[in-house]
Amino acid sequence: MVLKDSFNRPVTNIRISLTKQCNLSCIYCHREGEKSSKEQLSAGDIAEILRVAAGFGIRSVKFTGGEPLLRPDLLEIIRSVPAGMESSLTTNGTLLAGLAHELKKAGLKRVNVSLDSLDPESYKKITGLDQLAEVLDGITAAQEAGLTPVKINMVVLEGINDHEVDDFLAYVRGNRNLILQLIELMDFNHCEHHGDLNGIERALAMRSKQIVTRRMHHRKKYCLDGAEVEVVRPVHNTEFCAFCNRLRVTSDGKLKPCLMRTDNHIDIRGKHGEELEDLFRKAVADRVPFYR
User: In terms of pTM, does the model score above 0.90?
Assistant: First the structure.
């Protein structure tokens, strides 16, 4: 039985934050609105959440953070994903080179890698560390391991990296295993470098040979000169909300019905069986499009 909210939006995807910990200090990081806490779900709790999610017809899970590769039990968590549920992971890529093949062997399908600059100085300015080479090695290792397509998540920052869009297009061009995602800055962390995605998207549309509208959030995929690029725009976007199929779980064990809200979380720490199922139903019933 697939759960639907009162706006007839089915929930077919779950996004689980595994930790708030991260080895980078990105200037824009919002951690999806999570507040500081040392608590995090155990591998057993996550396995139970996944079991219940699968019972409700949820077909895919994305593991996020913080930096999920910092969890020593990450492979155990990936192995607990139920049969028939596709698993992916978002990482900053700094630790990926040494783990890519083990992640694939454990059952992970693919990865998203957060990478906001191909220039070492700009990368360090954004993240606080000089680890661009490690990230690029991680992307190579992910492709070799078959964690594909690798999606490159670039948060567009005015005056910092917005001039690099063509450099990123050149980086993914001609490689079917790489897809570029241009992501709108969400100002949860009072970062004021909002890039002009309207102008960028108009330019992409003019240059594209094909434009595909994806089911998820109704976002556009632009195909131009052997490069694929998607534009992810959650802010003031009614289509993003109208086509949202995702339920989130915070690292400290709360169901989060909406990316944009932090005032309606549902505590599921230590919950199992029918009690957890009822809380899933409540979370989905609480889903309301943030932009309507």
Answer: yes
